[in-house]
Amino acid sequence: MSEVESRNFIEQIIDKDLAEGVYDTVHTRFPPEPNGYLHIGHAKSILLNYGLAQEYGGKFNMRFDDTNPTKEKEEFVESIKEDIAWLGADWEDRLFFASNYFDDMYEAAVKLIKKGKAYVSDLSAEEIREYRGTLTEAGKEDPYAKRSIEESLRLFEDMKEGRFEDGEKVLRARIDMASPNINMRDPVIYRVAHMHHHNTGDKWCIYPMYDFAHPIEDAIEGITHSICTLEFEDHRPLYDWVVRELEYPHPPKQIEFAKLYLTNVVTGKRYIKKLVEEGIVDGWDDPRLVSIAALRRRGFTPESIKKFVELCGVSKANSSVDYAMLEYCIREDLKLKCPRMMAVLNPVKLIIDNYPEDQVELLSAPNNLENEALGSRQIPFGKELYIEREDFMEEPPKKYFRLFPGNEVRLMNAYFVKCTGCVKDENGKVTEVHCTYDAASRGGNSPDGRKVKGTIHWVPVKEAIKAEVRLYENIIDEEKGVYNEDGSLNLNPNSLTVLKECYLEPSFADAKAYDRFQFVRNGFFCVDANAFGVSAGSPDDNLVFNRIVSLKSSFVLPKKED
């Protein structure tokens, strides 16, 4: 397959523009509205725009499209900046706000009025909808479209000076009420809104509409290729009309690509906001969500997100991707990076009856069998250990190769032990498992060559570090789908399991927020940043771990066609 054929359609458009001299450089941007946290779908747009700038040796801008103060917050501005920086998209010194251009946009609107291309209307929002027509019927002319240029200029200035109430007047572009594209039927480009703005304060009481503001922002910043998602395709004629009528010398080109959809996840801001406000999730960064902040807190890496976006590709056709592919990407990224250490999540005590009472020995264990560069560590071993409760059964089924009376197993990196029995409490619950060890089998191998079929992990009781472990499942009940018939979410009641009595080997003592590990046999885990050090110094200040992903999945990466 040739290089030209393998390039996505956006790269092919850019190649053609550069070859024909339409542009002599590539300048992209990512323009989120700061009205919520970014999610995995935004990551595709961020990495696409930044990646194109990098590929062509161009520039990448970070710009907040903050033209709607009713929903925007400084909290969202800061979270978005953190997300984009974490993904590795470097805007250098090019951080902009649409609100920085409000003066330019006002002057642009005045220019359109003077050209006879815009007018002030008194119609209400409902009347404008009525006059607009339908997909099959042309719209009707606004009765205020006949206003003189002078009157519209005067009224527009009065709008700016706060002489009208919200909704009392709007500024409309004069285009074509009979256009087959409804977006071109004299769209509203300015409205009155007496709202405090997070960036400009109370300077303005009129605000531009997105479809008017966005092309102006792109043109002012020198953007060459305005890459956006597919729902803006029908808005492109209006985008082009704005830059043409305002006579920008180097108009940007809008190109649309398909959004990234994940199956059985919640990305809608309205739904997430409700989950947060009702306390169903622990904020916008709850690890069960797919906001970028949530994925970071859960333990995903920027590299895994980049790999995922790369596998999804760039196309013009909408499609959905299985969440399992995102999990595949994080497994592939972490399997050689993370130390593989022992943690017991559902503990029961294992007592080695013939091991010396006060003896403690240090056993060597590799940190990652697939990556020798991670080295090894020393783990203390003693008479009393914690093992997983599921690793012992009094009456095991066939092909159960772990501990049961009379059976011998290998303690990982340690010794062979043979189970002799157990102790139960008054309710019949096993509280202790007893065994004997073979002192000659240190390192997990018997000198007489006998084999054992089971290997289990363990943690020394005296040196163990207590931890809380959080196991996450999809917040959506996958069997029922995302939404109920009434539009509410189909929530999974078992999306979070909190294990308070977990024990880790002492090598975890230096773990920090966001540190990632593979818990032997249990999955990949990350130190929860929100819970780290919240009660430093108190006896209950345990490490808190989030399970990033289990160790195995049935997901298989599709083979590429020849």
Overview of this protein structure:
This protein is α/β, with parallel strands linked by helices. The protein has helices at 3-6, 9-19, 40-55, 74-87, 102-114, 125-132, 149-160, 210-221, 236-245, 269-277, 292-298, 302-312, 323-334, and strands at 27-30, 59-64, 95-97, 118-121, 170-173, 188-192, 206-208, 225-229, 253-257, 260-262, 319-321, 340-341, 343-344, 347-352, 361-366, 376-381, 384-388, 408-411, 416-424, 430-438, 455-456, 459-460, 465-472, 496-504, 516-519, 523-527, 543-549. The strands form seven sheets. It has a seven-stranded mixed β-sheet with strand order 12-25-26-27-23-24-13. α4 links the parallel β2 (59-64) and β3 (95-97). It starts with a helix and ends in a 13-residue tail after the last strand.
Write the layout of secondary structure elements.
Elements: H1 3-6, H2 9-19, E1 27-30, H3 40-55, E2 59-64, H4 74-87, E3 95-97, H5 102-114, E4 118-121, H6 125-132, H7 149-160, E5 170-173, E6 188-192, E7 206-208, H8 210-221, E8 225-229, H9 236-245, E9 253-257, E10 260-262, H10 269-277, H11 292-298, H12 302-312, E11 319-321, H13 323-334, E12 340-341, E13 343-344, E14 347-352, E15 361-366, E16 376-381, E17 384-388, E18 408-411, E19 416-424, E20 430-438, E21 455-456, E22 459-460, E23 465-472, E24 496-504, E25 516-519, E26 523-527, E27 543-549
Parallel strand pairs: 1-2, 2-3, 8-9, 10-11, 12-25, 14-20, 18-21, 23-27
Antiparallel strand pairs: 4-5, 5-6, 6-7, 13-24, 14-17, 15-16, 17-22, 18-19, 19-20, 23-24, 25-26, 26-27
Helix pairs in contact: 8-9, 12-13
